[in-house]
Design goal:
single chain
C-alpha cells in the first residue's frame, strides 16, 4: 500500500460471526483466510473480495465450544482447537472433520509447519505433536513438564 492509504478506501467487510472472533489464519498462498469464533464455528473466506467459501460447522462435525485457535496445513486442510478440549482436522473441500480428542483441557494454540506437522498446546500443560501426513493425524509425541 502507498502512503496515500488503501487501494479501496471503502474497504471490504466480511461478516464472520455475530459473536467474538477468537482466532484466524491465512493459507500458505495468501488467497484465503479462516476465522474461529465464540459461536463454535469457523468460516473460510477469500482475501481479495471477502466472499465466504465454507462454513466449518454443522450438527455432525465441529466444536461444541468456542474455537480458540486455527491454522492451515500445507495441503489446504485446516486444524482447529477449542475450549471443548478437542482438535478438529478439517478436510480441504468438505464440511467434515476428524476429531482428535487427546487433551484434557481447552486447546490454547495450534501451529503447523511446512511438513504437515501440527503442534497443539493446551491448558492441561501439554504440547502434542501431530503427524498429519497420509490423510489423517497421528499423535507422534506428547511433551509435558
Amino acid at each position: 500500500h502507498s502512503k496515500d492509504g488503501p487501494r479501496n478506501p471503502s474497504g471490504n467487510l466480511f461478516d464472520a460471526s455475530d459473536r467474538n472472533i477468537l482466532c484466524m489464519a491465512v493459507n500458505p498462498s495468501g488467497t484465503e483466510a479462516v476465522v474461529g469464533s465464540a459461536d463454535h464455528g469457523l468460516k473460510v473466506f477469500t482475501v481479495d473480495n471477502c466472499k465466504m467459501k465454507r462454513n466449518l460447522y454443522n450438527k455432525k462435525f465441529g466444536h461444541t465450544e468456542w474455537v480458540t485457535s486455527c491454522c492451515y496445513l500445507q495441503d489446504g486442510r485446516i486444524m482447529s482447537g477449542g475450549m471443548d478440549n478437542k482438535l478438529c482436522l478439517w478436510h480441504s473441500s468438505a464440511v467434515k472433520c476428524d476429531d482428535l480428542v487427546a487433551h484434557k483441557a481447552s486447546v490454547s494454540k495450534v501451529e503447523s509447519n511446512s511438513n504437515n506437522v501440527v503442534i497443539s498446546a493446551s491448558y492441561d500443560r501439554t504440547l502434542m505433536i501431530w503427524d498429519c501426513n497420509g490423510g489423517k493425524a497421528d499423535c507422534a509425541k506428547i511433551l509435558t513438564e
